[in-house]
Structure formats: structure tokens, C-alpha cells
Specification:
With about 450 residues, this protein is mainly α. The chain has one domain: Amino acid/polyamine transporter I. About 75% of the residues lie in helices and about 0% in strands. It is built from 17 helices and no strands. Helix 3 crosses helix 4 and helix 8 runs antiparallel to helix 14. The chain is globular. It starts with 8 loop residues before the first helix and ends with a helix. Bound molecules: phenylalanine. Phenylalanine (PHE) binds next to helix 1, helix 2, helix 10 and helix 14.
Length: about 450
């Protein structure tokens, strides 16, 4: 990405929202809600978004904006020493592991798009669709081929520096995705028995809240909002000086949460109306979505359009993921004898990612492990590090202060922000960690 990438404020919002909105909202959120008892998870998730989302998105944007650097150089530039460099490494490793499984799921979406194009789901019932999914994922060469496709596309975007085009494209496509999801929700809510699904999704049952639910909700919040691994630091670095950080953060949060909620309102009523099990795991949306399209008018067109939009939503996330590792490699080797330019970094990162993808495709438990470890451990750890870094170790006010140039943040809001970074965010992450380990 070049310095000129973000021509406008809306462009930056779209890029950051493009990073946030992706498979996390449409694929992962519904299945994780389904596995964790519905409404109880939803409430804990929304609390996490309020608690962590705002302070941490702002923190990453500010780290980027103030340092003008990516996750590799930002911590050193701001602290003036190397003591926080472990955070850069953590960001880069987290990005790599996420890409390992994220590209596999993106590959499933491309696979489904190809099949939607030839109307392959027509006339299949739930059993047929379930068998179809299993068959697809057990065909290893096909899965690897379809996962490699988005890797090549993402690498091409970073290689040719055409992010501006993507940014423009998502200005049109994001609203289209929202519109499409509203239409789907409308259709699903007319199905017989859809109210049971709505109850499942929205009924809050306190007894369902366990330490595991809380941990998973926190992990999902970090994953869905792309926080704790430096993706948003990069975008902060490209922010125009006049960009209003709190406002941009709120907009990203609202958009991301809206898409996740819509995904739930589409999937759960359909799950119950079709007599399916909400706790089916990662295959949930891939079985339920084609069945929903069969119920819609213009079935073929709806399926093709939706899977196209889903693939693009996934790509705008993979671009931000790969950028973290590419920038890391290029900047880390800049002072070496053989520095790597951007293109070489793109090649090396793509090769490593391919190895990770193939491992995830061949070993199921690796797929699950990468997913779980990144969301529930690495991203919260990254966020913990960043909040301590900004909250305790950097000056907030004065000439060098993190907030000194942020006219849009009022005095009272500054106090709350710093208080959250110093106390609330670190304490909440530590308590949730200890709780899930059974220490508390
Ligand atoms: N937030 C993205 C999603 O919901 C995933 C992602 C995580 C992207 C971390 C970038 C960084 O799909």
C-alpha cells in the first residue's frame, strides 16, 4: 500500500470496515453462536464489543497514525527502544496463523460460487447439502486449489498496489452486501417456524453463560473486529491527519456488528425452519445458505450474487491480513545486506501461507487449533500488550502525547479512554483468561 492509498476519509472507513467485515461475521459468528447456546452468547459478545471494541480500535488507529508506521516499526518508533518489539512479532505470527485457516474457508466460498454458477445445489435437501459439504472438504486437491485462488488474488492486490481500486470497489459492494442480506433476512423470516430460530438467537438465558462462552465471545469480538494483530495499525498509518479517530472507530464497529447480527437473523430462523441443528460447527452456513436460496425467487441469481459478495468481503479481510506479514518482512529486512522489496516479501509470505493452508487442509485439528489459538489467546494477548503500551508507557498529553493532535477527542472522553486502556481492558482480558483456565 502506498502512502497515497487513502484519498478520502470514506475510503479509509471502507478499508477498515472491509478488514473487519468478512467470514468472521457471516461464517464464524453464526456457527459459534450455535455452538454456544444462542442468545446467551450474543449478549456476552455485545458486551465484549462495547468493552473492548471502541478502546482497542482507537488504540490501533492511534498507534498507526502517530507513528506513521506499520505494526513492524510502530512500537519502536513510539517507544524509542526495542522492548515492545515482541508485539510486532506477535502481530506477524497471528496474521500468518489466521491466514492458514482463513484462506481455506475463503476457498470454500470460491468453491460454492463456482457451484452456484452451474446451479449445482438445485433440488438438494439438507442431507444432500450436508453430504455435499463433506464431499467438498474431503477432496483435498480441489480444496487446496480453491484456497490457492484467493491467495493469488490477495498477493496480486498487494503486489501491484491496487488497493485504491479495491477501496473504490468496496464502496459499492459493501452496501450491496448489506442490501442482499436484508432481502435474505426478509425471506427467511417468512418461513414457517422461523420464530423458533429468532428465539434461539435473541433469548437471553443466564444459565448458559460459562467461562468457555465468555472466552469464545471475547475471541470472536477480537477476530471479527480485526483487533489485536496490527491490521488496523497499518490503516491508522495511512489516515489523513484530519481523520476523526473515534468516529471512524464507531462506524467500523456499527457496520461489523450489523453484518454479524444480520447473519444471525438469516441463519437461525432458517436452521430451525429446515429442521437443522444449530450446533453443526463450521459447516453450518455452507449447508444452510444454499437451502435458503432455493426458497428465494431468482434462486440462481441470488446465490451467485451472494457468494460473489461473500468472496469479496473475504478478500478485503485477507488483504489486510497479508499486508501485516508483508510489511513486517519488507521492513524487518530493510537494513540487512539483502533487503527484501515488497514484491519479494509478497512471494515469500504467499509461499509460507500455502504451506500453512495445506497443513490445515490435511490435518483437521490444525485448522481448529489455528482458529482457536489466534482468536482466544494471541489476539487478546496482542490487545493486552497494546493497551498497556499506550495506557501506561506512552505520554497521552503534551507535545509528544498520543492524544495531543486529536482535536475530536474531548477532555472527558480522553479520561475515559485512558482509564479503559489502563485498567478495564487489561483487567477484563486477564480475568477472562484466568477464568477459562479455572483459576478463578
Ligand atoms: N475481521 C475479519 C473477519 O471478520 C477477520 C480478520 C481478523 C481480518 C484479523 C484481519 C485481521 O472476517
Amino acid at each position: 500500500m502506498s502512502k497515497t492509498t487513502f484519498s478520502s476519509k470514506i475510503g479509509l472507513i471502507m478499508a477498515a470496515a472491509g478488514s473487519a467485515v468478512g467470514l468472521g461475521n457471516i461464517w464464524k459468528f453464526p456457527y459459534i453462536v450455535g455452538e454456544n447456546g444462542g442468545g446467551a452468547f450474543l449478549v456476552v459478545y455485545l458486551v465484549c464489543v462495547l468493552l473492548f471494541g471502541m478502546p482497542l480500535i482507537m488504540t490501533e488507529f492511534l498507534i498507526g497514525k502517530r507513528s506513521g508506521k506499520s505494526a513492524y516499526g510502530a512500537f519502536r518508533a513510539l517507544s524509542g527502544n526495542n522492548r515492545w518489539q515482541w508485539l510486532s512479532w506477535l502481530c506477524m505470527l497471528t496474521a500468518l496463523l489466521i491466514m492458514g485457516f482463513y484462506f481455506v474457508v475463503t476457498g470454500w466460498c470460491f468453491n460454492y460460487l463456482a457451484e452456484a454458477l452451474v446451479n449445482a445445489f438445485h433440488g438438494m435437501d439438507m442431507n444432500g447439502l450436508t453430504a455435499h459439504f463433506t464431499q467438498m472438504t474431503s477432496n483435498l486437491p480441489r480444496t487446496i486449489f480453491f484456497s490457492a485462488l484467493p491467495v493469488v488474488m490477495t498477493a496480486a492486490v498487494l503486489w501491484f498496489d491496487v488497493n485504491k481500486g479495491i477501496e473504490r470497489l468496496s464502496k459499492i459492494l459493501m452496501p450491496l452486501l448489506l442490501l442482499m442480506m436484508f432481502l435474505m433476512a426478509g425471506r427467511v423470516l417468512m418461513l414457517d417456524g422461523s420464530n423458533i430460530g429468532m428465539q434461539f438467537f435473541f433469548r437471553f438465558d443466564f444459565s448458559q453463560i460459562t467461562p468457555k462462552v465468555v472466552m469464545e465471545a471475547m475471541g470472536q469480538c477480537f477476530f471479527s473486529l480485526s483487533i489485536g494483530m496490527g491490521a488496523l495499525i497499518t490503516y491508522g498509518a495511512y489516515m489523513p491527519k484530519t481523520q476523526d479517530v473515534p468516529r471512524t472507530s464507531v462506524e467500523v464497529i456499527i457496520l461489523d456488528t450489523l453484518v454479524a447480527l444480520l447473519a444471525g437473523v438469516i441463519i437461525f430462523p432458517a436452521v430451525f425452519a429446515f429442521g437443522f441443528n444449530p450446533a453443526e460447527g463450521p459447516q453450518l452456513v455452507f449447508v444452510v445458505l444454499p437451502a435458503i436460496f432455493e426458497q428465494m425467487s431468482f434462486a440462481w441469481l441470488s446465490a451467485v450474487l451472494f457468494f460473489t459478495l461473500l468472496c469479496i468481503a473475504a478478500l478485503t479481510s485477507t488483504i489486510s491480513l497479508m499486508e501485516v506479514s508483508v510489511a513486517f518482512l519488507a521492513e524487518a529486512t530493510a537494513k540487512l545486506k539483502h533487503p527484501m522489496d515488497r514484491q519479494k516479501s509478497v512471494l515469500i509470505v504467499s509461499a509460507v501461507v500455502m504451506v500453512l493452508i495445506i497443513s490445515c487442509v490435511c490435518v483437521d485439528s490444525l485448522f481448529d487449533a489455528f482458529d482457536e489459538i489466534t482468536s482466544c489467546i494471541m489476539m487478546p494477548l496482542g490487545a493486552l500488550g497494546m493497551s498497556l503500551f499506550v495506557g501506561w508507557f506512552l505520554p497521552q498529553d503534551g507535545e509528544k502525547g498520543m492524544l495531543s493532535k486529536e482535536k475530536a477527542i474531548k477532555r472527558w472522553a480522553r479520561k475515559i479512554f485512558v482509564f479503559f486502556l489502563r485498567w478495564i481492558v487489561p483487567a477484563a482480558i486477564i480475568v477472562i483468561f484466568l477464568n477459562s483456565l479455572g483459576v478463578l
